[in-house]
Design a protein that fits this description.
Alpha-Beta Plaits, about 15% strand, transport, Ribosomal_uS10_dom, 15 helices, alpha+beta, four-stranded antiparallel sheet, 4 strands, single chain
Length: about 400
């Protein structure tokens, strides 16, 4: 199917020429058939044909202006290329550094697995517990005094608790790797002072034990342990002190994207088709997809239908068999603040679901797009054409002006 604008122009030109030929007599028609220059004169005097050179000049001027603008953008393009090259070189450097660090991490992981580290850490925890129990036994036997007992016992108990916390954390990591369903990770906050200036965690428990040992010097170790357990029940646990995170941040940290992408100010999504119903449905679909892409929808409107007359001739004849008035419906969705990285995805998505018979056009907004919305005054257009036709010498001669 050809260009509708060209076909419409051709039809109007033929109609204007035939209007002049119909008023001619037989002698004028015979003279017209024998003289091609008269036919050329009729064609050249058609208003639509006379405007073609002017339109051609305007097209050349517009093309020249566009070419000059494209050349003016060359420095910006070269600068953008340099920035892209520098960014690529930085990315290659960072990639090499990451690969080097990964190789070091892999080599260290091969030397000692997490299972081995967990077993060694549990053994070290039990060793520190045994040392603290040995110090308590020596104190009960009277081999060391109270000050030495408090100093050594607190050091060993602190070491044992710290190792136990690390061991439990490592075991949680191993369980998370072993099972498909991830478990709640243990808090990694340090086991000392927290809420309201109150001592919590292992350090607070050690302070309680130290206070009880000083206060009850003659008490046995078993009674002292039970009393310390009773006093430590009110202290907050690791679970109480764990930082409460949102579920989506439990297993992945929150990454802030510092990149800023350029945006298009105004984009017109134009839909054209001969069938009204699918065009309306697809306009609603494009409107919803634009909202999901978080584009700002400025407005969504309809343009007056453009009607064309389609003539079907009988085979091998100039007789008209049928005439059809074909209406082209037009819908426009205008969007704003469109990131350049999202627009290609948006166009690809709506083009994939484009109904048969619907034409899609995506372009930047121009003043001509706004002027296209208004319906022209047909009477005014007719009078303008009549005024233009008065410049035709043949018309002026028929009117008796020349």
């Amino acid at each position: 199917m050809g260009d509708p604008t060209y076909e419409s122009l051709l039809e109007m030109s033929v109609s204007a020429a035939m209007a002049q030929v119909r008023n001619m007599s037989n002698e004028q028609l015979n003279a017209l058939l024998s003289d091609n220059s008269k036919i050329d004169a009729i064609i050249e005097n058609i208003p639509q044909v006379r405007t073609l050179p002017t339109e051609r000049e305007m097209g050349l001027v517009q093309n020249k202006s566009l070419a000059e603008w494209n050349l003016s953008q060359e420095p910006k393009l070269e600068e953008a290329k340099k920035k892209l090259l520098n960014t690529y070189e930085q990315a290659v450097s960072v990639k090499a550094e990451v690969e080097e660090l990964k190789a070091k991490l892999d080599s260290m992981s091969e030397q000692r697995s997490l299972d081995t580290s967990s077993a060694l850490l549990q053994a070290a925890t039990q060793s520190a517990e045994d040392d603290s129990e040995a110090i308590a036994d020596r104190f009960m036997k009277g081999e060391i005094d109270v000050d030495q007992f408090i100093k050594e016992f607190i050091e060993k108990k602190t070491l044992a608790h710290m190792r136990r916390i690390k061991s439990e954390k490592l075991l949680a990591i191993l369980r998370q790797q072993q099972y498909t369903a991830p478990t709640q990770p243990m808090a990694s906050s340090p086991p000392y002072p927290s809420h309201g200036g109150v001592m919590t965690g292992n350090l607070a428990k050690i302070e309680v034990v130290e206070h009880l040992v000083v206060k009850h010097k003659g008490m046995s170790v078993n009674r002292l342990s039970r009393l310390a357990a009773t006093q430590c029940r009110s202290l907050s646990t690791l679970r109480d002190r764990a930082i409460q995170l949102e579920p989506k941040y439990l297993y992945e940290p929150k990454f802030e994207d510092p990149r800023v992408y350029p945006e298009y100010d105004l984009i017109n999504v134009r839909l054209q088709g001969y069938d009204y119903v699918p065009l309306e449905k697809f306009q609603s679909y494009v409107h919803k997809i634009a909202k999901r892409f978080k584009f700002e929808i400025v407005e969504s409107y309809a343009v007056a239908a453009k009607t064309e007359r389609v003539v079907v001739y009988k085979p091998n004849s100039t007789l008209v068999e049928s005439e059809i008035e074909l209406a082209t419906y037009d819908r426009v969705i205008r969007i704003a603040k469109v990131p350049t990285v999202r627009l290609p995805l948006f166009i690809f998505l709506i083009h994939t679901h484009l109904p048969i018979g619907v034409k899609l056009t995506v372009k930047g907004h121009e003043k001509a797009d706004e002027d296209y919305r208004y319906i022209p005054d047909l009477l005014l257009k007719q009078k303008q054409e009549e005024l233009k036709s008065l410049d035709d010498p043949l018309v002026r001669k028929n009117l008796g002006w020349e």
